[in-house]
Amino acid sequence: MDINELKSHKVPDFVIKKFQEQNISKLNPGQIKAIQHGLLDNKNLLVCTPTGSGKTAIATLAITKRLEETKGKAVYLVPMKALANEKYNDYKNLLKDTNYQVAISTGDIDSGSEWLSNYDLLILTVEKMDSLLRHKTSWISSITTVIIDEVHLLNDPKRGPTLEILLTLLKQLLKNVQLIALSATIGNPEELAKWLDANLVIDSWRPVKLHKGIYLNGEIEFS
Questions:
Q1: Of 93, 102, 158, 179, which is the most exposed, with the fewest CB atoms less than 10 Å away?
Q2: What CATH number has the domain bearing residue 131?
Q3: pLDDT per residue over 17-65, tens digit each?
Q4: Residue range 69-116, pLDDT digits in tens
């Protein structure tokens, strides 16, 4: 799919322009499948594609289209502060010439953070989002899109239970929210997609071919 075809799906022009500045002229297979499975039609998705295959771009398409349509808020959930900072810098750059404002909150302080009501895209850790829900923050109802990065951490003994409860609450509280879950490694994608009430997108395309081998005594034998 050519990048310019995104205009017919009402993707904002500034997103298409940013892709073109990055010399991206065509969508990759995983991104095309995501669109075919309802990414731009407000459908929930579980996207399972390799590292570096363009999952962030999939999130960007969903976030920006919903911001344009609903004027609500988008939340990008990440498991770690370092990843939150990375995503914040990426989206701050993307939105710098628009009317949309992005904020990041990864603080350990347990609070409602009402100041976040002034922003359109929020980059939050799972623990921060959990805190916001428990404090019944006033602007929660304005969230229309939630991206869950590294969703396979549902299986993590420490962080998994918090993420599971968080997603359960979001589905109950936000009836019209679009959930986009992203991961490179999920052992039970069909089961997880069913639980999320999401369409499953699986693709093996990667920008660099992966070679598997065994390293022993200074030598690698590829399979």
A1: 158
A2: 3.40.50.300
A3: 999 998 889 999 999 999 999 999 999 999 999 988 899 999 999 999 9
A4: 988 999 999 999 999 999 999 999 999 999 999 999 987 655 558 889
| Number of domains into which the chain is organized | 1
Has residue 181 been placed in a domain? yes
Q: Show the domain range for 61.
A: 28-204
The whole-number pLDDT of residue 161 equals 92
Distance of CA 165 to the CA centre of its chain: 18
165 — pLDDT class (breaks 50, 70, 90): very high
- The answer to whether residue 131 is domain-embedded is yes
- Could you tell me if residue 110 is inside a domain? yes
